[in-house]
Design brief:
CATH architecture of the largest domain in chain A: Orthogonal Bundle
CATH topology of one domain in chain B: Immunoglobulin-like
Structural class of chain B: alpha+beta
CATH class of the largest domain in chain A: Mainly Alpha
CATH architecture of one domain in chain B: Sandwich
Structural class of chain A: mainly alpha
Strand content of chain B: 15-25%
Number of domains of chain A: 2
Helix content of chain A: 55-70%
CATH topology of the largest domain in chain A: Rna Polymerase Sigma Factor, Chain: A
Largest sheet of chain B: 4 strands, antiparallel
Number of strands of chain A: 0
Shape of chain B: flat
Oligomer: heterodimer
Chain lengths: 188, 174
């Protein structure tokens, strides 16, 4: 799946690091976390809409994964396994976000996160985030998995448990809703 | 990008324009690793499978009664007494429902893997699966034709208002 990068070029491999981590080698596990923090942090940030929740979701996912390493049946596919844990943790975190978002702005862009790169000034990334924040969670999740993480529907179905037709419908609904929410410049 | 969805080319172009700026890495701080390592060294943070939560024993009968009233059956069978207190119990998840593509149960006990624990249907539309669970507290939910469905016979989890209904089962030590 797209969430699992090619491992053939990476040394030490995920499987090697998982084996060491299972022997309580925290340095090995720290390498795994560093390897996937940015990649998976992107998903958590866009789904949850703020840096604080994204970091917390990532911390929880890393913690749960370490404590569940004995159940990681295919260490060479550690990334895909970890990503599933993160997706589920984001769902839980999303409930807290839902309770809070009425009390604050939908985005907290600390430390420059979310500030458009100069080359992307015209992309209105913040506007996109606001649109995403107003999607129902299932639609936001489906859009991010399909178009940002670039998973296939088969991979998404395996990850979420939803049927492929249901996932396609969620993406379609997300598209319709985003067209309503975003400005003319995007909706054309 | 594989063009394997039901969108037309205009919709795909629109979504691609939105997605493109979101694909840049998000520079979350390395304090994530530092905090996780601190948790792992101290035993803090979330625990998988049986949690440190308070054991819950009293709501099973009430839950089963409620389930009968709703036309959905959830039963739990436990192993014979006399085994070690921490030995796995045999827990049967039961759901009466009509489903086209299948029913599964996902939860803390199977890493929320939708393919790990499918239920099997009898001719009356009762879906069941038996899972060994050690004493502890677990969040879980059913997946029916791809949609999450909370177990109406069990307590609702606190974090279930994301549109992802989850339930809680607590297996007491014997």
């Amino acid at each position: 799946m797209a969430a699992a990068p090619s491992l053939t070029q990476v040394s030490p491999s995920d499987a090697e690091l998982v084996a060491r981590a299972r022997q309580a080698d925290l340095d090995a596990y720290a390498l795994l976390m560093t390897r996937y923090r940015l990649r998976f942090g992107r998903y958590a940030f866009h789904l949850l809409g703020n840096e604080s929740d994204a970091e917390e979701a990532l911390q929880d996912a890393f913690t749960l994964a370490y404590r569940s390493l004995g159940r990681c049946r295919h260490p060479e596919r550690f990334a895909a396994w970890l990503f599933r844990i993160l997706v589920n943790r984001c769902r839980t975190m999303g409930s807290r976000r839902g309770r809070r978002e009425a009390r604050r702005a939908p985005l907290e862009l600390a430390n420059g996160i979310g500030v458009p790169h100069p080359a992307e000034q015209d992309m209105h990334r913040e506007e996109i985030h606001r649109g995403l924040a107003r999607l129902v969670p299932e639609q936001r999740e489906a859009f991010l998995l399909k178009y940002v993480e670039e998973l296939s529907y088969e991979e998404m179905a395996e990850l979420t448990g939803a049927g492929e037709s249901a996932l396609k419908m969620r993406v379609k609904r997300a598209c319709e809703r985003l067209r309503e929410l975003l400005s003319e410049s995007y909706a054309t | 990008m594989r063009l394997d969805d039901d969108l037309d080319s205009q919709d795909r172009d629109f979504l691609q324009r939105i997605a493109q700026p979101l694909r840049r890495p998000v520079p979350l701080s390395d304090r994530v690793e530092r905090k996780v390592l601190a948790r792992l060294r101290t035993g803090a943070g979330p625990m998988p499978g049986p949690s440190r939560g308070r054991l819950w024993t009293g709501a099973v009968a009430a839950g089963i009664a409620a389930v009968f009233a709703l036309g959905v059956l959830v039963g739990r069978r436990t192993a014979p007494p006399g085994t070690a207190a921490r030995a796995p119990h045999t827990v049967e998840f039961v759901l009466r429902t009509s489903a086209d593509s299948g029913v599964a149960v996902v939860g803390d006990f199977n890493d929320w893997d939708p393919r790990a624990t499918p239920l099997h249907a009898d001719r009356d539309g009762v879906w069941t699966v038996t899972v060994p669970l050690r004493p502890g507290r677990y969040r879980y939910t059913f997946i029916v034709d791809g949609s999450w469905r909370r177990d109406p016979a069990a307590p609702r989890a606190l974090e279930d208002d994301f549109g992802r209904p989850t339930s809680v089962i607590t297996i007491a030590q014997r």
